[in-house]
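Deviations from the work plan: none for this task. Representative record:
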Amino acid sequence: MSTFVLLLITGLGLGALYFLIASGLSLIYGLMGVLNFAHGSFLTLAAFAGFEVGRRVGISTWTGLFLSLLVGAVVGAVFAALTELLLIRPLYKRHIEQVLVTVGLSLATVALFEGIWGPDPIFMQASGWMRQTTDILGAPIPNDRFVSIAAALLVLGGLVLFLNKTRYGLIIRAGVENRAMVTALGIDVRKAFTLVFTIGGVAAGIGGVLASHYFGYVSPLLGGSLLIFAFIVTVIGGMGSLAGAAIASVLVAVLQQFANFYLGVGDLIVVLLLAVVLLVRPQGLLGKAAA
Amino acid sequence: MTDKLSGRWGYVIGAAVVLLLVFLPLLNIPGLGILPGPTYTAGSMHLMAFTMLMVALALTYHLLFGVAGLLSFGHALYFSVGVYGLAIVMDRTDIPLVPAALLVIVIGIAVANVLGAISLRVSGISFAMVTLAFAQAANVLVRRNPGRVTGGDEGLSLRTAHVPDFLVGVVNTRNLYWVALAVLVVVYLITVWLENSRLGHSVAAVRENETRVRVLGGRPYLVKLITFAVAGTLATFVGIVYLLLQSGASHTATGTEFTLSLLVMVVLGGVGKRWGAILGAVVYTLLDQRLVALAQSPVIANLPPFLHIPLSEPMFLLGTLFILVVIFLPGGLTSALERVTRRRTQTVPHRVLEDVT
């Protein structure tokens, strides 16, 4: 029983990380039709920024944690916004080229991170509360899992409120539904593009700092390895669907944890799940039917 | 460029280039910083052979992406079937090289057909994702090292017990160079033949407008599948020789990054053009291999860190170059070259007229 609870909550913690990346990917794809390969780099840079802050302020203190999360979010947001303004916008309406540019950016930035921080993982020794465990039904759960889950829930709640209660949220939702119509009504969708990228950057930035706590290290390849699973989550959940991304994150991560523990083949199961979903229901769980 | 090089002159120039490449290992041409030394040295021949294999591989990706318009993120899988397939067969059995290679090619044909048949049930971004997923699964499998067959992260070195002596060791790099050249020529000829065949024309038509092909009574799924299978099988073929040249298999050959580098090559040169794939692969491979040497030169190493760090990362420079090409040279390097040569050789008023009418 305690193993079951441990796997379940660890899976939820991993799912929270997946969601933080996949939510941005999904919104960006839904609104702009761009598959953002650079999303992993947003995450990695934020993780390194958070790591640098944590190293100076003290990684084990609450101040250090919040400050590194804040810095990570800001760094992710700025990086993402600049990417949209400088690289995506000049290629407006040329989707393949936009994807290619993000591919180039991810290759270039990963190499740059390797140049700055070295190619090997840097392990972080957090102590104190984040490293301790809390017993739930007899299962010792590392506390950083709770922080990840709480952060993902906050981001999910914030996004839902933003999308449903604000004017910009309305524009974004309308744009995902039918961008041509929104443009025809005289609304400048391009502002929404930058906004969506920035939001995605914030979520990925928070995800990056939390991922470095979850895995206990930062490395230039941190984002890339998570990005592949985030892609899978996005596709399974349905491109452009926030709720789909949330459900699929939890589904994929929990399934992965259980399959890893009992069969040792978690990653393969996830890939198989993706293949099955795409062949049975190509638009994903909650996606719109393919246009 | 293609229209200029077609016809009789195309064959003559092509034959001359191949002839030059055949005799290159016997000549003493200085490397000029592009190659590590004169052309007859083992290091230079190895780099040239490596580049030719990458060109061949880029041509197979060109068949997928340029001709059929299929954006695959999993082409590395079919390449690694060749690399790991042969490495495992040579390691575990006593089959001689040639039958072993044929066996691996048969496996490659089977894998490409089965996975292609599944992946092509969806299209666009979904297709890209399914191919990515399959390749990722292969990557995970190789790194997991099931039954200690693949060597995991360490890789698997080629057991040379049943490889003919003239293909083993640094002394015989020249023979491997010629084998790589032969592979490149074979892959190139198959690519040309396929592009000019009825299959090539119908798959190009599918790329442009799939619905229309279907309405006209064509079978888009079948032509895409055949192209996918041919590209995959050729990649397996290249992988086999890659293993001989590198005398070992590494899991990097199965990764997504490897497929992305093929994508970068094809786009760098110019999508949809055979010469684009070739030029892109040559530029990419040489820069990737040689920029490391540049980074170690004292000129770069003595620069302040904010210049020295980016300049010593080849992938940073290549990625940046790639971004610039995508934004500023939509047709890739070949169309930039075309524009330059056209401006120099003739002013073309009739083109302007065409544009007006």
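Chain A touches chain B through 39 residues (CB under 8 Å).
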